[in-house]
Design brief:
159 residues, 6-stranded mixed β-sheet, 4-stranded antiparallel β-sheet, mainly beta, 3% helix
Amino acid sequence: MGSLWQTKDLPNGGTRVWNTTGIRDGCRVRSCATLFGQLVFGPKAKPLLQDPSRIHGRNWMTSDITQTSAGRSIRLACPAASDAMADWHLHTVNEQLVGVVLQDGLDPDNILVLSASQRRQQQELLLLVKPFAWLAGPTGSAIFEVTDRGSGCWNVRGR
């Protein structure tokens, strides 16, 4: 998940919840979006926000990515079956992984940037990633590896 959470109270008494990338600026997180995108939590996903451990590390049924002039979004509809295999993995990376990643440092076939925030040498990317995707920055490169349990992690190699 990105580090910036946004909410909007609706006239009918409900609340709309989004998650996107941000950069820490003192005691708060600001968007600093270079590419605005967000995760939207559907009605069945919202109750799980009370316990974030119920969101992280799970497979989800989602909408297709929506692209508008305002940005990209994907809706988390509901948790998938426990034995479901993920086509894409949602991962957030920052400059501590391999430095600031430029567009040509992203695997064009296996990574889709949902949201990007950058301020000076700070960066946060919210990525949809396929297994064995790569990314590269000034301090190294990384390959996305999926374990037999379905979770993924970046295997980093320095330069």
